[in-house]
Amino acid sequence: MTLRAHLAAITLATLGFVSTADAETIRVAIGTQDTTINTATGGLLIRELKLLEKYLPRDGKYQGADYDIQWKNFTSGAPITNEQIAGKLDFGVMADFPGAFNGLAHINAGRKSLFITPLSGSVGGSGNGIVVPAGSEIQSLAELKGKTISVPFASTSHGMLLRAVKAEGWDAENDVKIITQAPEVAGAAPKAGQIEAHADFVPFAELFPWRGIARKIYDGSQSKTPTFHGALVDADYAEKYPEIVVAYLRAAIEADQLIAREPEKYSELIAKVSGVEAEVDYLFHGPLGLQTRDLTWKPEYRQAVATAIDTLKLLKKTDRSLDVSTFVDDRFIREAFKASGLDYEAALENYTQLPLEAKDAATGEAISDGTRVAQIWVEGEPLVRNFASAENALKSLKVLEAEGTPVRVFYTQDRESGIKLLGAQAWFVHADGGKVEAFLLKERAEAWAKANGGSVLDFGAVKASIVASN
User: Fold this and answer.
1) Contacts of 402 (CB under 8 A, 6+ apart)
2) Torsion of CA 176, 150, 126, 342, to 10 degrees
3) Is the pLDDT score of 313 beyond 90?
4) CA pair distance 445, 192, nearest whole angstrom
5) What percent of the chain has pLDDT over 70?
6) Same CATH topology for 3-122+226-349 and 129-223?
7) Chain-wide mean pLDDT for the chain?
8) What is the pLDDT of residues 438-450, one digit of tens each?
9) Is the Cβ–Cβ distance between 268 and 379 less than 8 Å?
10) Alpha-carbon Rg of the chain, whole angstroms?
């Protein structure tokens, strides 16, 4: 055994891990959700870039061991849980809500699973959302009373919807009609006018609007309830092979670092594999993104698991309790941070969005205020152009369109929540002084205009107003 391996073994032993691997074939079976794109650093990217192979232990008790790496892709967390219970998977990636169900399902089966890391999330709740058909006149959740809302049952978006309905003071059984509908089915429903609203998880509340079949009227950040996607492992597997769990997490850390450095490049890779367009992938994974990639167990994420358990009880999906303090296990991710030369405690205290370090493409000045940033991804350009303000970006967009240069997407930041928006779906306030502020909701734009002055415009109108003012 090398000195490094010996020291690693000592460290793992001090954490209470016991390693029993001998020269054998060891299965590493991982359930992924490729279309749930914020899980990419725990699944798709590790698989496609073969990062796990880089970190799997080869020394000591793993000397001569062969690895049988198995990847299985699913569209939601529930079937991953089923496969884990059946002994067909060792790891799985899913959100807080199905993750809590995973823990309870293991207990019901006389087993135990561990929630070992977040991958991406929002302490404010962004990521889940509610959409209406593109032609609908509905602009806010308040207008959905008495309407039919579909949602993937037992998903994190289901939990969000129930909390949103409760916040409105409504009865979830009498004031709205909630029906189950999987994401792969829901895409056609708004287009055909078969439903009045649909609630869903990452990336569908953005993907459906991007594809022109729906319009987002509610973001999970309005519920102010933390949400995240993360990874779980079978507890017996983790006890037997702790070094493999750490290896998986080290691969996740490298995947996170790679996409942080080159978000456009890896958004394109995610698009190629998942079928979710790169423009939507960047919305989540790019700087100042809709969610923040975060591999630390912030108190808010622990609370999200506890809230999910309570919601499952409310839905009468379980009458059991789950001890979050033992279900959420940060020993492995802490060890992975240490092995990767990273400071876990510093990351745990960091609540900032993924930073944007760039200069305004129009003025050349460094961008210092992320709240007013706008971005343009020009067709044929590998990197997104960054602007310090929406008005700067809109003026550049005017020039590009006049030249006939195709533009892939226009992004802007919500003035109040700070979440990244698809410009074509946003509402804008164009003030008399020329400033342009962006908002997800028309009602918030109207409130801002009333308080600060200016006209409320949609994307087409704000582009025209910029042309008229130059």
Assistant:
1) none
2) 140
3) no
4) 29
5) 94
6) yes
7) 92
8) 999 999 999 999 9
9) no
10) 23
Residues counted in the chain: 470
Decide which of 186 and 113 is more confident. Answer: 113
Q: What is the DSSP string of 51-113?
A: HHHHHS--SGGGTT-EEEEEEEE-SSHHHHHHHHHTTS-SEEEEEHHHHHHHHHHHHHTT--E
pLDDT score, position 8: 53
Q: What is the largest CA-CA distance in the chain?
A: 73
Rounded distance, CA 259 to CA 38, Å? 11
Spans of all domains in the chain: 3-122+226-349, 129-223, 370-468
Query: Which pTM does this prediction carry?
Result: 0.93
- Under a CB-based contact definition with an 8 Å cutoff, are residues 293 and 76 in contact? no
Residue type, 201: F
DSSP string, 266-300: HHHHHHHHH-S-HHHHHHHHSTT-SSEE--S--HH
User: Is the model's pLDDT at 14 over the cut of 80?
Assistant: no
CATH number of the domain located at residue range(s) 3-122+226-349 in this protein? 3.40.190.10
Three-state DSSP class for 196? Answer: coil
DSSP state of 180: E
Topology at the third CATH level for domain 129-223? D-Maltodextrin-Binding Protein; domain 2 (3.40.190)
